[in-house]
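REVIEWER CHECKLIST
Item 1: Sequence provided? yes
Item 2: Single chain? yes
Item 3: Sequence as submitted:
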Amino acid sequence: MENDIDDLLDEVEQKYVKKTTPSRNVKASPTAKSRVKPAGSGLDAAIDDILDIDLPASHTANAFQSTSKNSTLSTSGNSQSKSEQKSRCFPVYLGGSGETMGRGASMNKHACDQLRCTSCDFRICHFENMAWSRDTDYLFLRNNAPDFQKLKGKLSRKKGCRAYCCQCQWRNVLEICELRDPQLKWVCGKHPS
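Item 4: Structure as written out by the authors:
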């Protein structure tokens, strides 16, 4: 099996990996010339050659330009300010209309207000002090969500209840509870920190 993988890698290397050489406009760094290249496959040599090429100053300046004065570089090289970072609820909570909405955590139980459905790829709608009627069905939601004017025909007033829906599922929730129903494919869609 190892020989098959090696043969496949050799074939890919021969077809797609070409040894790169610096062009006239791009000069090699002084450290690249003095660096000893390890003995190995042609792929290692090609990667080393690519890493040894210096980009013009205009490319490197744009790549690391920060978006704000307080931005930090992450280990992956992406610059992102702390205010731009987003986080998910863990665990995800649903709650009645009396519950605070926001990013939830095990110590900070808030009903998530950024829910998305992975089944229909739709943002979850929620309606305060409302409940779904028993005859609500998939086809009704598929044709009418998220338009409240169309949905209100199946909603009734119920104090303390929050009605949730996407285009394929719906729930009435009276008090804070962890989202554990396997039928609901709802996940937190990330909150701004």
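Item 5: Key structural point noted by reviewer: The chain has two domains: 2-65, 87-192.
Item 6: Recommendation: ____
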